[in-house]
Every structure is written in C-alpha cells, then in structure tokens.
Design a protein that fits this description.
The chain is α/β, with parallel strands linked by helices. The strands form 3 sheets. It has a 6-stranded mixed sheet, with helices on both faces. It has a two-stranded antiparallel sheet with strand order 7-8. Strands 9-10 form a two-stranded antiparallel ribbon. Helix 6 packs antiparallel against helix 12, helix 14 packs parallel to helix 16 and helix 15 packs across helix 17. The chain starts with 19 loop residues before the first helix and ends with a strand.
C-alpha cells in the first residue's frame, strides 16, 4: 500500500493557525538556501528596533522628568496653565482624529437615514408621529388637510364608541341585498342594473348582544376595471375612497359569488394587509346544494389562507340575500303554470360572524383600527410632500430652461453661451438634488452633463428640423431664425434633463447617471412641437429686447394666444 503523504500541521492532526498563504510563503523562504542569512538579518532588525524604541523612550522620559521638575519650582498658576494647554491639545487631537475617521452625514440621504434610526424604519405610525409629520409638511409648504381630516374622523368615531364594518365586493355581488336582509326595513338602494350603489351608505345594526354596528355599503370595486374611459378618473377616485373607508373600519366583509377571480384575489390581498378582522361571505348560496356549498366554502378558505396577512381570525360564511324565483308547476289537468316564489334570506351565519368580531377584545379592535388610520394619514402626508416637491421641481426646471433660452439669445461672444449653459446645467442638477435631499459631488454633475451632451448631440439634427418647421408658423422670425433655433434647442434640452433628473431622484433616492440618460433620450422628442412653440415665443420675446432687433417681430400677431399644455401644466404660447 502506498504511503499517504501529509504536509504541514495537518499531518499531525493539529488545527492550522494564521493565514495558509503566509505560512506557506514563510516556509518556502526559510527553507531555501538563503534561509540562514535571512534569519540573521531579521534578528538584527528586531534587536535594532528594540534598541531604538528604548532609546527614544529614555529620552522622552528624561525630558518629561526635566520639565516636571521645572514646573514644580515654577509658580502654581504656570503649572496649571501648562497642564491645561497639554490637556487641550490632547482633546483637540483626539477630536480631530475622530472627525477624520468618522464619515460626515450629508444634508440629504444620511439625514433621512438618521431620522429613520431615531424613529425606527419599521415603527408603526402613531398619533404623535402623525402630528410631527404634519408640522414637517407645514414647514415644507405641503398640504396637510387630508391627514387632519383623517385624525378628526378618527376622534369622532372614538367618541361615538361604535363598531364600523364595511361591505366590500364587486358590482352586483349582493352587498346591498345582504344589508337589507340583516336590517329589515332599511332604505337600501338595490336594483337589477349593476353598480346601483354609487355613494357610501351607512346603516346602524344592533346585534343580539346589544352592540351597535355601523354597516357601510361601498361601491363595487370592479367599476374601475369596466373600461369606461370617460368616467375612469371618477370611478378610480370612488374606488380609492372605498378602500380608504375599509382602512377606517374595525372589520371588513367581502362579498363574492363562488370562486374568486384574479382581481378579487388582488382586492382581498389589500384587505388582508390591513391586519383587521375579515369575513368572506359567499353569497347566493341558494343556487347550490348543501354539499356543493360546503365544497365552495372549503375552497375559499384555502384561497384565503394563501394571502399574505390572512390570520386565523378570517371567517368564511355562506349567505343568501333572498329574493324571488320563477318556477313552473304542472297542474293535474296537464297545464303548465308559472309562479313567482320568494326565497327567504339566509344571513344567520354572517350575523354570528359579526357578533364574534364584536365579542373579541374591544381595545384590540380599536388598536387595529387606529393603527390602520394612522398609516393612511401618514401615506397621505407622504403623497402631499412628494407632490409639493414635484411642484417646486417643475418650477425650478421651468426657471432654468427659461434662463437657458435667454442665455443663448443674449450670447455675443463665440463660445460664451456654452460656458453659460454649462454653469446653468450644473446649477439645475445641484438645485434638484438639494430639493430631494440628495448629496452630490461636482465630479458626478460634470460626468452627467458630459454624457448628456453626447446623447443630445445625436438628437440635435432631428430637434433642429422639427423646431425649424414649427418656426415657419411665426412670420417675421427669419431675421433671428438661427439664434432662435439655437435657443429653443437649449430650452428643450434643459427641460428634458431637469425632468429626467427629478424623476430619477424621486424614484431612486440618489443621482444615477444611466437612468437619467435613458429618460433623457426617451423624452427629448416627446411632444416636441407643442414644447417648441412655447420656447420659440420665449426666444422671440428675448430677441425683441436686444438692441437693433426690433424688426424681428414685425408682422407677427400677438393678439391670438392659446394655451399649450406641457407636462400637465398650461403655459401661454403664441401662435399667429
């Protein structure tokens, strides 16, 4: 049997220590033919180092003792002054070293991170935190009306002491019919046309246990997916209001028929994410046999259990709002007779499920409701702050694009406009970063502007062609056509760059070059004709103010003005 070779410490079964690479290197060096004189050299170096350290230590000690002896003989005030100076120098040196070694937080992203560390990034919002955010929004000039309304509504419901339950579901799922069955004699809008319930309706229900429930009938959620483009905004706003009402409630009843569609699963996922009691009511159970209905319930339980946030308190009940059924009866004479027979409602299971919700810990119900409302108010404050930042960003972009146009028109020295535009471009990027609380270095801005200039150079021929064609609609502009073309291009470039930077900062929280460049290329030619008209008018107005250029606008009518919609805002642009 061949002998197994082993090397190093592993052959002894001893655990190796230190870096294997350096151990191997040291073994090679010291085992070579030069190992003897290398060992001698290293030994002498160690001895010399020890001698030098001892020498400097003795010299320092001697100097320290000599100074101390002199200080002992000196006046007391001199002794304490000297010690104070030494202590101050040591503290200053230590503070300076700490400042050098510790990264400095910037005014943007690091400040946000610090605030998150103080408040906790995952800390659930409470009333105190909402009040703090309201003050921050007020200082930033953002709207706080919606958040204050949420807090006021929450206080009103707390004082009333009622349990609020929202009825969710698609159009014609039977929500209103179920409420009518639970509350005989209640005035509820029902009808054969889908979507009869257009507004939220509240109904008071007293449970067998004597508790008061407020049932809120909400519009059908699938109205927003109906494809009605003319009413899309209206319907979407109504669906959003319905979902917000679910946030304000203590519990939610979701009404469905049979199995769940993909859209219904999406709606339920939003509701289970609220972490509050949920009842899934399988309506129109009269269409099924008892065995089939039980199969449907088990299937719904399985689907519900797969949703994130679905807890053990979620209930699935079979219900029926009742109604009428047409039947045909064969008489003894052999004739067929049609009869309309009433279908009694079956809502006992739903009533029992609601009673179980009420019977649970009232303080816990209120806490779950309050937490959801605080989260809703916090999100509204965040949205308002984002919108405020967008508005200020748009104003900055418009201002710098205006300056770019005027700078190009006012340039009198070759190359001067390039210098001016470079300064303005850097200032625009820096101002947008400051607005979004993002720290940025001058080198990063220069790299972005350089790459933007390269991308813009490829698109300039197309931009010039479009702008030149639009300029033909302005009589009398021929005398300054070259300057106007130049200025309009700068205006378009600045506007596009500003919007690309602002959007990237909003989405990513920092200035990333590649996303900015992609957006810049995509949006530079977007609606270019309408935007060009606005900047042409601006450039012509600037040309009128230049000495000797009064004839530039001769023959140009200024009576007809129309609004050119640009990016959601309207600006005055003249087209004769």
């Amino acid at each position: 049997m061949a002998k197994k070779e082993t090397t190093g410490l592993h052959s002894c079964g001893t655990k190796p220590s230190g870096s294997p690479y350096f151990r191997k290197t040291a073994d090679v060096i010291f085992s070579s033919k030069h190992g003897s004189w290398l060992k001698t050299l290293l030994t002498l170096a160690v001895v010399l180092a020890v001698v030098l350290i001892l020498y400097f230590l003795l010299q320092a000690s001697e100097l320290a003792f000599a100074v101390w002896d002199r200080l002992q003989a000196a006046p007391e005030w001199l002794l304490w002054s000297y010690l104070g100076i030494v202590l101050t120098l040591l503290i200053g040196a230590g503070w300076l070293i700490w400042r050098i070694r510790t990264p400095r937080p910037d005014k943007g992203g690091d400040r946000k991170e610090t605030q998150e560390q103080e408040h906790g990034p995952n800390r659930p919002p409470d009333e105190a935190l909402i009040e703090e955010k309201i003050e921050e929004n007020i200082q930033a000039g953002a709207d706080v009306h919606a958040a204050k309304e949420e807090l006021e509504e929450l206080r009103t419901r707390r004082e009333a002491g009622e349990v609020h339950v929202t009825m969710f579901g698609d159009v014609s799922a039977g929500k209103s019919t179920l409420i009518a069955a639970l509350l005989p004699g209640a005035e509820v809008e029902t009808g054969p046309v889908g979507g009869t319930t257009r507004m939220m309706h509240r109904h008071s229900l007293t449970t067998p246990g004597g508790d008061t429930l407020i049932l809120t009938d909400l519009p059908g959620l699938n109205e927003a997916r109906s494809g009605d483009d003319e009413r899309a905004d209206e319907v979407a706003a109504r669906v959003r209001a319905a979902r917000e009402e679910a946030v304000r409630a203590h519990a939610v009843v979701y009404v469905c028929e049979g199995d769940l569609t993909r859209d219904q699963l999406g709606d339920l996922e939003v509701l289970t994410g609220l972490a509050k009691p949920l009842v899934l009511a399988a309506n129109k159970s009269d269409r099924y046999t008892d065995g089939d209905m039980e199969t449907v319930r088990e299937r719904l339980k399985e689907r519900l259990a797969t949703l994130p946030g679905s807890g053990p308190d979620a209930q699935v009940v079979a219900v029926s709002g009742g109604g009428e059924r047409e039947v045909f009866i064969l008489t003894p004479e052999g004739e067929e007779r049609r009869e309309i027979r009433p279908i009694p409602p079956k809502v006992e299971a739903l009533a029992q499920a609601l009673q179980r919700i009420v019977d649970r810990d009232p303080a816990l119900l209120d806490a779950l409701r309050d937490g959801a409302v605080f989260a809703l108010a916090s999100s509204k404050l965040d949205e308002a702050l984002i919108q405020r930042r967008r508005d200020k960003g748009n104003a900055l972009i418009d201002d710098y694009a205006h300056k770019a146009v005027l700078g190009a028109m006012a340039a009198v020295t070759p190359g001067l406009d390039l210098i001016v535009q470079g300064v303005l471009g850097a200032a625009l990027v820096r101002a947008l970063c400051k607005l979004h609380g993002v720290s940025v270095r001058t080198l990063e801005i220069e790299q972005l502007l350089k790459k933007t200039d390269m991308r813009a150079g490829k698109a300039i021929p197309l931009v010039l062609a479009v702008v030149g064609n639009v300029l033909k609609a302005f009589p009398g502009a021929g005398t300054v056509a070259g300057g106007v073309l130049h200025a309009v291009c700068y205006g378009l470039i600045f506007e596009t760059l500003g919007r690309a930077v602002a959007r990237t900062l909003e989405e990513r929280g920092n200035l990333e070059v590649n996303p900015v460049l992609r957006r810049f290329e995509e949006k530079l030619s977007d609606r270019i004709e309408a935007r060009s008209k606005y900047y042409i008018r601006m450039a012509l107005d600037a040309a009128m103010k230049r000495p000797g250029k009064e004839s530039a606008r001769e023959g140009t009518s200024t009576k007809e003005e129309r609004h050119v919609k640009d990016g959601g805002r309207k600006v005055s642009g003249g087209v004769p």
